[in-house]
């Protein structure tokens, strides 16, 4: 934040005082943004200046295309942001996001050397509120009458998985739209105070977020401390209702239709300009989540203790309380035509997960208006203490169990590059492409029978492409 | 950790750290902002939130969606 404000030194203050006296003598209306702009011309590189003290607006637009290998999830996400900056440090931001997600997603069951069959609720005719549909190799089945069954749901959807294949539900489809708005400004001795809110709606999920922020600059604006308070209220209303954790997977509509989750957290930040070339930021974050955090569509296999063949399929179940903490250290270094960014994050929670993330990027400004920026990211996480690749039929059921690969122990690497072009002093176009790969233990030591011959790690490989455009104007 | 941050904020010796105001030319470059491309950072965080068990650090750990 200290970058947005320039404070004059002793000499600067003296000059300002003299200038102000002269200006006041000549014009009472000097204190407006138009006058402020006169002090900022074009900088050395010929770019228009949109620095502090100038009222301007910045539009950001981007299109994200995300494609997982193996015909799994594909997402297209257009986003737009508008930031309106006032001459006295005020800022209004408005954002919009749309998401279209489709493809196949692992349902959580283990592969088997035999054909497997799964059943799930069927979208009623004419329904517009569904994430799944009878497509991608599914068949419609007639359900046996059940006491308390929802009358309209006498049909179910069944899909099969070929031998030695990772079970996936190919009917996954979702749309999302989100809006955000925020305001911040200086207030008295507080350098920045503000707040914002967001609303996101999917076909089976809704999220409302709110945040407030305060920041104070010190030390010739070389030091900033900040505090962000965040809240989130989510509602999950999965298609087919909310299943009971660790009950058998079935095609019935469940009586509970909606569950909620509340999240409260804060980020305490320190930003320090260390030298002329080195900017550093250190954040400590704490979050508390309470409520429904289970994936309502995900199941876990129960296998025979000798053969390893699945004998039943249960819905997963996760604890309702989660407390997370993280420490994030970011560094930016400017030398010559390059800007290097190097960051590290340590994350831990009370589910037994801990992770290390290291990211590095090197922006190289080329001749004229081009720049390139290669980047790499390394990630490692430990498993949640209730992660199980499968359950065994002769053992007692645990209170919580999930076979979600995202809760397992794995490593991930991302590498890619960005290329940017300054179209004018006011606008820039960029394209970036990244490749993301997860690797984990597909052959755990506790695999039984036929599972020893299966790959039990359903990790993701994905390509990420994003095209973006930034445009600043007065 | 919290103590360290508060101590750092309260430490008057911090005035010795950092460049003088007329040495901030490099810090004024747009690409030296902590998040110069917010939509790119948001996209990254959205993807990693959806595919990993960790989130946040740079900002709020919440996803604002049911993506995971």
At a glance:
The complex is a heterodimer of chains A (474) and B (68). Chain A has 474 residues and is mainly beta.
Keywords:
heterodimer; A: 474 residues; B: mainly alpha; 2 helices; 34% helix
What does this structure look like?
The complex is a heterodimer of chains A (474) and B (68). With 474 residues, chain A is mostly beta strands. Chain A is 5% helix and 53% strand. Chain A starts with 9 loop residues before the first helix and ends with a strand. Chain B has 68 residues and is mainly α. Chain B is built from two helices and no strands. Chain B has helices spanning 2-10, 38-51. The two termini of chain B are 29 Å apart.
Secondary-structure element pattern of chain B, one letter each: HH
Report the helical percentage of chain A.
under 10%
* Low-pLDDT segments of chain B: none
According to DSSP, the number of beta strands of chain B is 0
Set out the fold topology.
The complex is a heterodimer of chains A (474) and B (68).
Chain A: H1 10-26, H2 33-38, E1 56-68, E2 74-85, E3 91-106, E4 116-121, E5 138-142, E6 155-161, E7 168-187, E8 190-202, E9 205-218, E10 223-236, E11 259-273, E12 278-291, E13 299-303, E14 310-315, E15 321-335, E16 338-349, E17 354-365, E18 370-381, E19 391-392, E20 410-422, E21 427-440, E22 461-473
Chain B: H1 2-10, H2 38-51
